[in-house]
Amino acid sequence: MDFPFRLAKDREFDAAGFGTNAVDFLIRVPRYPAFNSKVELIDYSQMAGGEIATAMVGLQRLGSKTCYAGRFGDDAAGVFGIESLRAEGVDVSFAETIGGAQTQIAFIVIDEGSGERTVIWKRDAKLTYLAEEAAIEISERAKVLHITPHDTAACIALARRANEVGTIVSIDLDNMFPGLEDLLPLVDILITSAELPRRMFGLEDHRDALKAMQARFGSPVIGITRGENGSLLLCGGEFIETPGFPVPGGCKDTTGAGDSFRAGFLHGLINGGSVEESARNANAVASLKCRAVGARTALPTPAELTDLLTKKS
Fold first, then answer.
1. pLDDT: which is higher, 211 or 200
2. DSSP 8-state code for residue 92
3. Cα gap 20→57, rounded to integer Å
4. Cβ(151)–Cβ(131) under 8 Å?
5. Backbone angles phi, psi at 143, to 5 degrees
6. Measured between alpha carbons, how far is 144 from 137 in angstroms, rounded to an integer?
């Protein structure tokens, strides 16, 4: 199935990202600790993460030209975070460093046996964008605008401009935020966590929940990620169910798997793939990411993605 919209031509960037970045402190443990217990960690590391920043790195590694707009603190974590994007080739001209602010951090506990993670995070209020502070220019200079709605008013301003100039709007949504009722009707690609449509509409069946979400907000492409079970999309009145890929070598860490899924999906769109092909790309990229600890460590190259897709076909 073809996507029900066309990408703009002659844009400077394939994708522009607006939203979260983070510095992650990843702690591997032999088992997730019970309440009021102690467990000796296996190892720990500091790595860059954040939903949108990670998605832009994923796209950049796959050959797209990307830019990132977001705020960092003027602390050591901020230097680390912005340099991690610059090192990958992501354009950071629209990124900002905020004096006196702390960069968003996350402590992530990873169960060694399953690779599943628990995230404990904090975002400094000083990093918040008002609507008039959004870098509207990125909506005009990219084919796709990919956002998280932590600063909903700023996202609405960016998405409205994107709609006006023919830029496709994609959102990474895993929780409820004030202002979503105004933002989501502006979104073309709405992919959420598996539980969110159920929470929104009180419907247990995924298909019923997705139909209700599309009827409410009108996004042409809507779907959920389902971890190792793949994804379910709704487009053109048809459901597209795509299985997941086994992680080569076994799952080491699921941190950033959803971000990687979005990168793979947008990679398919940007490169002229069908909805089905883009969904397979998305699940393959998410699987490959899980090969190593960290949100970005094992994000694949084009050759690695092609190899996995070829083996699976």
1. 211
2. -
3. 13
4. no
5. -75, -35
6. 13
Q: Which two tokens stand for residue 193?
A: 């966590």
Beta-strand runs (E) in the chain? 13-18, 22-29, 43-49, 66-69, 71-73, 96-98, 105-111, 117-122, 142-147, 168-173, 189-192, 221-225, 231-235, 238-242
What six digits make up the tokens of 6?
């066309």
Q: Distance of CA 106 to CAs 23, 123, 228, 239, 269, Å?
A: 6, 9, 23, 35, 30
**Pairing mode of beta strands 22-29, 117-122:** unpaired
Q: 41: which residues sit within 8 A by CB, 6+ positions away?
A: 27, 28, 29
What the chain holds in terms of domains, given with CATH numbers, is: 13-21+51-102+125-312 (3.40.1190.20)
At 192, which amino acid appears?
A: T
How far is it, in rounded angstroms, from Cα 305 to Cα 268?
Answer: 11
Query: Can you give the pTM of this predicted structure?
Result: 0.95
**Average pLDDT rounded to a whole number, residues 115-140:** 95
Which of 69-96 are b and which e, b meaning 16 or more Cβ less than 10 Å from the residue's Cβ?
bbbbbebebbeebbebbeebebbbebbb
Report the alpha-carbon distance of residue 65 to residue 201 in Å, rounded: 37
Quote the tokens at residue 104.
């968003």
DSSP 273: -
What pLDDT is recorded for position 176? 84
